[in-house]
Every structure is written in C-alpha cells, then in structure tokens.
Amino acid sequence: xxxxxxxxxxxxxxxxxxxxxxxxxxxxxxxxxxxxxxxxxxxxxxxxxxxxxxxxxxxxxxxxxxxxxxxxxxxxxxxxxxxxxxxxxxxxxxxxxxxxxxxxxxxxxxxxxxxxxxxxxxxxxxxxxxxxxxxxxxxxxxxxxxxxxxxxxxxxxxxxxxxxxxxxxxxxxxxxxxxxxxxxxxxxxxxxxxxxxxxxxxxxxxxxxxxxxxxxxxxxxxxxxxxxxxxxxxxxxxxxxxxxxxxxxxxxxxxxxxxxxxxxxxxxxxxxxxxxxxxxx
Length: 281
What we know:
Elements: E1 4-8, H1 15-22, E2 32-36, H2 46-69, E3 73-77, H3 83-94, E4 98-104, E5 107-109, H4 116-124, E6 129-133, H5 134-138, H6 145-148, E7 153-157, H7 162-172, E8 181-188, H8 194-217, E9 221-228, H9 231-242, E10 246-250, H10 256-272, E11 277-280
Parallel strand pairs: 1-2, 1-4, 2-3, 4-6, 7-8, 7-10, 8-9, 10-11
Antiparallel strand pairs: 4-5, 6-11
Helix pairs in contact: 1-2, 9-10
C-alpha cells in the first residue's frame, strides 16, 4: 500500500513537471510526500553548509505548495552527504513506500544524481520507484492526470521471479478499484523451437492464469498474454498495442542472467515507455 512517498528534486527546469506529476499521487492512495534535496557538503565549512541548507529548505517549502494544493501532506527534508547513500538512508528512515522520479531518454534523473549513481538507485533502491519520462510530462496539460489514469490499463510483464512476485503483490495492494484492466504478460525466448517452445508457452500460460485468478478475486479484470520475442521489444509492442496507462514490473530476475535482463528491461521502460512505470525490487 502506498501511503508515503519520497520526491527528490534538483530545482532544475524539469522540477515543475515532476511536481505536477506528483500532484496526482492521491489517486494511488498516497497521503504524505517527503520532499527532499540532498546538499553535497563535501569541502564546505559549517556556516556555509547551514546557509545552503536554509536556502534549500525555503525553496522546498515553496515547491511544496503544489503538492499541498492537491491534498497531500508534505514533509521537507534537507539532508547532506552522498546523493545515493543519503537518498537510500532517508527512504529507510522516513519509512517511505516508494520514490517518485522523472526520467530522460538517456537514463534516470533524480536529485543531483547522474551516471553510475542513477543505475545504483534503480538496482538497489529498497522500495519501489515510480517514474515517468520528462518529455511525456511536458506534453501533458496536467501531468498529474497520468497518475489519475494509471490504473485504467496496467501492463505487468513478469518472469515469475521473486521480484516479479513482489510487483504483483504491490499491484494488488493499490486502492481497491484503481486497476480497471490488468494485462499479465510473459515473453518467451524467441530462440526456442519445437517441444521446448511448447513447454515454455504452456508453463507461462499456467503461471499467468494463476495470477489472473488472484487478480480476479480482487475484482480486477485480468487478461493473460504470452508473446514470443526479446523481452524489451515484446513489452514495448504490447504496451503500444494495448495503449497501456501504467506499467508495474520487477527489477530482479531469478538468476544472474535474468538479473541483467530485468535490469535492461527496466532501463528500456524508463527510456521508452509511453506511460508511468512502477519498478519494484
């Protein structure tokens, strides 16, 4: 259940878009937003750090008005330290249920985070991450509407790993009635043929139908989709064909090879998905 989320911000030109996006969080059941900016204080003297922290806090309080107008309670936090370590520590300390960020085509962008740190957040964040591409947000008159429509058509790719199971559980814990239609999907290895292909498709359908039954018990209309093909391409094709309004997926596979594959799928979705994406560890 999403009740409290963290929203890191860097006061960039994209800040307004992600704040507008976050204004739609009440539709997912969110009540509290921890609005934060990490001050990298390395090399700074005490008085300068204090001045910087006060400046950042004032800016965050101004930004909080957008979220408060949407009915959200906002907690402003201005920690200092390494961005990745500090964000992860604060997420744990504040007991947040997810981290909300925007993404660029070149990769994930968060509060003062770039390069390898962004990859670490995607891979090692202890809670789900809820993301949308900045260019997608900027094309919306009301970016928050993306979250208000999130549950209309949700695509859930799965490799049946523990992480995928966590993603399914997270979907079932969203407010009752939020998910109107759920597409449960598995991509079968395109290199399989004959008996191996038949077994893979039958096995996938069996597991997907079990998930379908559980979703239907929650009052969710769920469909089973088995596609042949490379996962990234198959998922994007399914996403476009269904005109999905949201994606929920895991980020870790069942073994080292699938770990790398799921990480690749997650990054592909962040860069190319035409709707918000929830990545669940």
